[in-house]
Amino acid sequence: MPAEVGKPFPSFSLQNQDGQTVTRDDFKGKWLVLYVYPKDDTPGCTIQGKSFTATKQEFDDANIAVVGVSEDDVESHKNFCNKFSFTIDLLADPSHDLLGAAGVGQSDYKGTMYWNRTSFVIDPEGTLRKVYEKVNPEGHERVLLDDIKAMQSAT
Question: Residue 44: what are its φ and ψ, rounded to 5°?
Fold first, then answer.
């Protein structure tokens, strides 16, 4: 069961691809897209990372931070970011602290369990506003940008 819309998003403290600790509180005053993806350097995950990097300025201009999360470790994230020149942070959750607390589901793919591609939209006060489950990585960044801009103009 994913984290509950309208409630505070679970606190987290995870390392990014550079080994720096990132917490939920680092994003106070900003909208946050936290997107969960199954595995570094796989086709769909590469599409998402490239798409968010390509639109990073649009998200920045709208006061929206974007971070990816997977169970891969810091070194794997670093290699993935370097390979594709990503300009977004990828957070390492190898012990599944946040993935579990946020209630991200898992699916079997060829005999291996992977975390479902899920996106969370968190408002500047830390409240979860929307959850997207089993996301199609193609064009998802546009959906998020449009939806959050609509939320921003409604407040």
Answer: -65, -35
Q: Which amino acid is at 71?
A: E
Specify the length of the chain in residues. Answer: 155
Q: Is the pTM of this model over 0.90?
A: yes
1 or 138: whose pLDDT is higher?
Answer: 138
Q: Which residues contact 88 (CB under 8 A, 6 or more apart)?
A: 49, 52, 53, 56, 66, 67, 68
Which residues neighbour 151 within 8 Å (Cβ) at sequence distance 6 or greater? 31, 121, 123, 129, 130
pLDDT at position 43, please? Answer: 87
Sheet of 21-23: strand order equals 21-23, 13-15, 89-92, 64-70, 31-36, 118-122, 128-132
pLDDT of residue 1: 59
Catalytic residue numbers read: 45
